[in-house]
Structure formats: structure tokens, C-alpha cells
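User: Continuing from earlier, I have the next pair ready.

Assistant: Great, send them over.

User: Here they are, in order.

Assistant: Folding the first of the pair now:
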Amino acid sequence: MNKTLKLLKQLIACPSITPNDAGCQDILIRYLNASEFLCERLSFSKVNNLWAWHSSKRSGSSTPFFVFVGHTDVVPPGDAAQWKYPPFIPTEKNGYLYGRGATDMKSGLSAMVIAAKKFVKQYSNHNGTIGFIITSDEEGLANNGTYKVVEYLKKRNIKMNYCIVGEASSNKILGDAIKIGRRGSLHGYLTIFGKQGHIAYPHLADNPIHQCFQVFNALVNTAWDHGNSFFTPTSLQFYNIESNSRATNVIPERLEAKFNFRFAPIHSPKVLQKKFEGILNRHQIKYDVQWKIASQPFFNSKTKLVAIARRAIREICKCETELNTYGGTSDGRFLASTGCEVIELGPINKTAHLINENTLISDLNILSTVYFQILKSVLC
């Protein structure tokens, strides 16, 4: 059996619904220990994390420091009855492996581990250090996962130079896209105040629902920016609107709305907040708004790791690679904040988080070979 497939099956069989690791890291530690990686378990608020590293005994050098980043947790499978095969029983069918996490991101994680094991076996006197940061808190709040591990490593004065996050970056074929950044995420919680009254006497009340129509229309039609060559324009999406009326004949006193900005590094959250509140003020409504920065954006303007990865993909996958910043947030932002050069490179993302999540089996060894070639270019 292909080694990456074998490991992937073991990981999928662990029902590691976020933030539960469900034994995945025990498996990974056994694999890494067998190749003389030093493994340190890091637990923060009952979240399991793993920090592992390997330095050549001969070179004695810690730099360059190359780190793989991944997560063992998965999103809930939803209604298991809708799956073709049980979500936590890895099943091969017509060249695909089905199971929750097959795409996001146990395939990338498996390919990384197998690549690293092969590399340290063939190049026992390699330069620098190979590290792994693995968490079970990526799909959820992400408060006690990679962020906490990076803070821990900072205190130990460990400086990482290059990072690959094994998220599913590819679109149609393996290697056709690498992510070199991600947009930030800013949540807002808006309350619009009116005056409660009887629904038959609207002239004696002030309906906050009616107030919101014009202001929401202005907000959603505002061009917050025009993006740039790597980032799409900033987007605003409302995802929940609710009044406090619980009767059919009462005009509510207030309306509450929840919304989210996805924004590029060309903006700071404060700029968006000021512009948003300016629109509210122009409509002369009574309101309160609370803000929460879920994640800062990042952009990799460095070129060395990108060039190495594109060359490896061209040689092995026989395709050209697009650089983009599409998608949601990722743990890459925590590494980017240290000055480390970060890219995201992994399998095809077509079925991530979907019912019947699957990955192409033939891609698994190819992806591991790409990772191996990148390690060779950086550390040899």
C-alpha cells in the first residue's frame, strides 16, 4: 500500500471533530519518533497540539528552519445517512478515498509526514531543521492551537524561516494553485434602536426594521475598496438579522444584526469600522456596534519558497501554478506574523467540508513527492 494512503486511512478513522484530536497525534508521534523526530505535546485549555523537530546530528545547524503546519481536527460530518460511506470509515472507491478529513486536511498532513520521513532517511546530514506544528483547534475557534504554539516557540527564541501549510490549495488538478496570503476577518454586532409600540398605531412607535432598509442597502452597495492584483475587493456580508419582538401585534424596540468583513492587507480594521459607522451616522439612526477582529490578513511578498514550490510542481505535476489568496482564514497567519515565509500547498479543495468528502488516491504520493522535493531544495 502507498505509505501516504496508509497513514491517511489511520487518521480518517479517528473521529476528530474539532477540537477533539481523537488519537490522531498519537499516530503521528509514532511515525515521527520512528524517524528520530523529537516530539513535544503542548496542551492549552485541553486542546492537543504537537511540536516536533529534526536537526541533523552531523551539521549541528538549526538554520534554515523549515516547518510544516497542519491540523488533525475536522468539521462535523453532518447527517451521516447522506454519506455514501460512513464518514469515519475510510473507503476506497473508483480511485478516490472517502471520509471526513480526506481533503481538509488529513491528506496534506499525511503527505507531509511521509515526505519528511523519507527526507531524513535519505539525507541524514541535511542542513537546518524540519519542524511540525500540528493542532486539533483549527476548524473551530483557533484560540488554543497554532497561535499558542507559535507564542510558545517565540518565548524559546525559535525563529522559523520557511513554512508550508498543508491546506487544500489546489483547484482542478494537484498543484495548479498556491496560496500566498489570506484576507482578514472582522465581525460586527449592530443594534438599531427604535421605539416599541402597537402595530396598529405605527405613528406612535419607531420601527427599527423599517429604519434598517435604507442603511443596509447603503452598506451592502458600498465599494469598500477595489482590491489589488492578489486580493479581491473587501466584502461585507450580513449573516443574521433579528428583532426583539415576540408578539404579532408589537413593533419591536430594537433590531440586532450580525455581519462580517473579509478584507485585504490594504485596509486596517479601524479604517473599515470608521467608514461603516460614518454611513450609520449619515442615516441619523440610533445604534450601537461592537467589533471583534477574528483574524488579521497576511500576504507573502517574499519569493524564495514560492519559486522553489513552483519549480517542484512544474517538474513533478507537469503544470503551472497560480498564486492566489482565495478562501477563508488559515493558521498561516500566525506564522506570517513572525516574519516567516508562508505558503499554502495541498490537495484539490473541491470537496472540503462537504458530505462525501474525498481525495484522489493517485495524488497522495505525488503531493508527498512535491513536499520532499521542496525539502531537498531548501535543506540540501
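And the other member of the pair:
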Amino acid sequence: MTDLEQILDNDPTGAEVKKLKETLFQAQNSVKRKLDQGCNPQQYQLLTKQHEAYIAAQAVLEQYVSQQS
């Protein structure tokens, strides 16, 4: 079991889940803003992968939480 799993499993109020969702959302938006400002092709590729990773992390978090319910 990972530290994150322990935190989520011991979160009866959902406060930690909410905090994690907000952190991921803010990070995703930050990357999106950088993409929207424009950048060179290398940066674009890196930022796009980061953006996709944040979306995937949110999906994993949602799936984990729904399985615990």
C-alpha cells in the first residue's frame, strides 16, 4: 500500500480527496495556461504530456475513490 492509498483510506470526511483534486486541478490549469501562451515545440511536447498526466491522475483518483465507496 502506498502512502497515498493510506491517506485516502483514512479520509472518512473526504477532505484529503478534495485537497488532492484541487491540487491536481490547479496544476493542470497552470500547465494549460502555459500552453495557451505559446511555446517552442519542445516545451509544447513536454507541457502536453504534463497536462495529460494531470488528467490521468485525476481519473485514477476518481476511480480509486469510487471503488472505496
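Worth noting for the second one:
The two ends are 18 Å apart (CA to CA). The longest helix spans residues 41-68.
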